[in-house]
Write a structure and sequence with these properties.
Elements (H helix, E strand, L loop, with lengths): L9 H11 L3 E6 L2 E7 H24 L3
Antiparallel strand pairs: 1-2
Helix pairs in contact: 1-2
Length: 65
Amino acid sequence: MYTVKPDTPVEDCMVFITGKRIRHVPVFDGDQYVRLISIGDVVKSTISQKDMRIEHLRNFIGGTY
């Protein structure tokens, strides 16, 4: 069974999930089950991070800092 740790970066999860061609992966902290994440969770998080970065750059370029 493939698993990831709670501190695994989202980008690494994306590479792992797509590389292994799986849709869900359990998150374990040692032997303790934490939760199940899906490819949808990873994509949502990635898009959210990109949106925040774009907004940050817009503010920087627009001089609102």
